Amino acid sequence: MVCDRRVVRLVCALLLIGCGPKVAPSAWTEHESTQRHESRAGSSAAPIDLTKLDDATIDELDEATASATVDALGDKAPAAQVALRAARLAHHRGDDASARVILAKAATAADEARWHAALLALAADVAAVPVTDTVAVLLPLTGRYSTIGVELRAAIELVPDVKWKFIDTRGEPEGAAAAVEQAHRAGAIAILGPVGTREAVSAARAAALHDIPIGLLAPADGADPSAGVFRLVTSPADEGRAVAELAQTDSFPSVGVFAPRDDIGKEAADAFIAEAKRRGLAVTADATYDPTGGDLEPDVKELLNLVPARNPRLAEHLAHDRKHGWQTFSPDVPFSLLYIPDRYDRAALVAAFLPYFNVELRTQEFPDQAMLSRKHSGHMPQVVQLVGGAGWHHPSLPVRGGTSVQGALILDVFPGDLGGDVSQQLGAAFQAKTGRPPSSAAAEAYDAAMMIAAARHGATTRAGMRANLARAHLDDGACGRSTMDVDGEVLRAPTILEVSGDSLVVAP
Question: How far is CA 112 from CA 7, 82, 107, in A?
């Protein structure tokens, strides 16, 4: 009777936990990567002699062989022990649905009584958690990235009528994976975040295993809507592609890029170059500089081909004018537009070096051609349009950059107070909440939360939430209109700003 009661208890437990949706996560494929993160174990099983199943042999079985052995044993011992091994392996790789099916087969096994406690404990671990209407938000609320986490939380909390559950990732991949587990146990219908690229990869893999749709706030290319992995913020590559589109639209036939030697600079520059070439523009300069160094001059000279050993005209000019040669030389500038994807403070320093080497920048709509011709010994120099991205969008840029940045164009998805009603309303609400204006990152997080909130309406399952996110859009957000493309990545058209005097204005 004791054995019968144990069997009944296990069967009841398995019936209760087995009523949830079956987890059948897709493989999540990272864009621009050859790695695939599969969620299923192999299906082939090596044959095994059922008469030689001792404890040591069972402990060495792989999942496929253990599962096949359970089927071969039926109710005979050691079916429960082998089922426990197979279910543990399935649980370890994140497939709790398969673990529940395997455990159910152990309920009537002859050796169930011996393994009853372990079977019940594992059954509790793989129980199907009921899905709620809670949306988990994964942010670095402690640790070295907590400043950005706290800022984004403040923006997300301004989105009403959503039951948010904030979980700290500590800014680490391991913390992000653990946060997904916590969201899963809480029955979250979806996840928003995290913000770091390494965190996002870790969280996306874990969310795909649990079949929880996730909207990443990490600014890096890559999503997979079939696995429920979406990207709800723009990336440096998006910015680079937008600058290339601007160059073509405004008829700049030759373009160059001068980027900091870091990951963000490289991502933006590579995307800009690829898109410019795709649009038929001539990419005539591709140079970098050290963002951590104090001396930009050598890198600027490389950009402008101002190396006497490689520039005979410059060498001859310096030989004739040793004292003022650098100040009087007129460089051959091969580009009409120069993209500098960096922060406003470093960009101001870079921009200041260009006039120092007699590069003529477009600081006004109609430059004085006669004056320029006289300055450059009778020939008309190439006038260069400077372009920056979101990192340039700062009120101190005009003062820091001075005349060098006058007329420069800035592309940013969040125009701040220069935007429409929603942008201004967010600015006022965020200022009242935190005492400071929102950054572009905060505005994008707010719009991402708005898209999640809209997708949640009418969705009672994670599958429904995933389907809603795949066709999500936001007609009027703080960053303007947002739509989800077929690759699961958000599309936003940036606002074009211009430096005019001491202010930034919307470009005409």
Answer: 7, 11, 6
Domains and CATH numbers, the chain: 2-38+50-125 (no CATH), 134-234+421-490 (3.40.50.2300), 237-412 (3.40.50.2300)
CB atoms near residue 108 (< 10 Å):
14
Rounded Cα distance between 242 and 275, Å, is: 9
How many helices (DSSP H) and strands (DSSP E) are in the chain?
Answer: 20, 18
Task: Let me know the angle formed at the C-alpha of 29 by 24 and 34, rounded to the nearest 5 degrees.
Answer: 140
User: Of the candidates 249, 253, 130, 101, which has an alpha carbon nearest to the alpha carbon of residue 188?
Assistant: 130
DSSP 76-105: STTHHHHHHHHHHHHHHTT-HHHHHHHHHH
How far is 96 from 210, CA to CA, in rounded Å? Answer: 8
What do you get for the CA distance between the two ends of the chain, in Å?
85
State the burial class of residue 62 (Cβ atoms within 10 Å of its Cβ: 0-12, 13-18, 19+).
middle
pLDDT in tens, 250-308: 999 999 999 999 999 999 999 999 999 999 999 999 999 999 877 899 999 999 999 99
Helix (H), strand (E) at residue 192: strand 190-192
d(CA 110, CA 82): 12
> How remote is the C-alpha of 59 from its chain's centroid?
40
Tokens read off for 298: 């050598």
Residue type at 137 in one-letter notation: V
DSSP letter assigned to residue 143: S
CA 9 centroid distance within chain: 46
**Can you give the three-state secondary structure of 195-238, one letter per residue?**
CCHHHHHHHHHHHHHHCCCEEECCCCCCCEHHHCEEECCCCHHH
Contact 213, 469 (CB under 8 A): yes
C-beta of residue 397 within 8 angstroms of C-beta of residue 502: no
DSSP state of 489: B
Q: Which two tokens stand for residue 1?
A: 């009777």
Local structure of 496: helix, strand or coil = strand
Distance CA 168, CA 150 (A): 10
- Write the DSSP assignment of 313-371 as a string of letters: HHHHHHHH-TTTHHHH-------SEEE--S-HHHHHHHHHHHHHTTPEE--SSS--HHH
pLDDT tens for 317-364 read 999 888 888 888 889 999 999 999 999 999 999 999 999 999 999 887
Contact yes or no for 230/48 (Cβ under 8 A): no
- Amino acid identity, residue 135? V
- How would you classify the pairing of strands 282-289 and 36-37? unpaired
Cis peptide before 415 (omega within 30 of 0): no
**52 CB-near residues (< 8 Å, 6+ apart):** none
Closest CA to 411 of 347, 501, 476, 502: 347
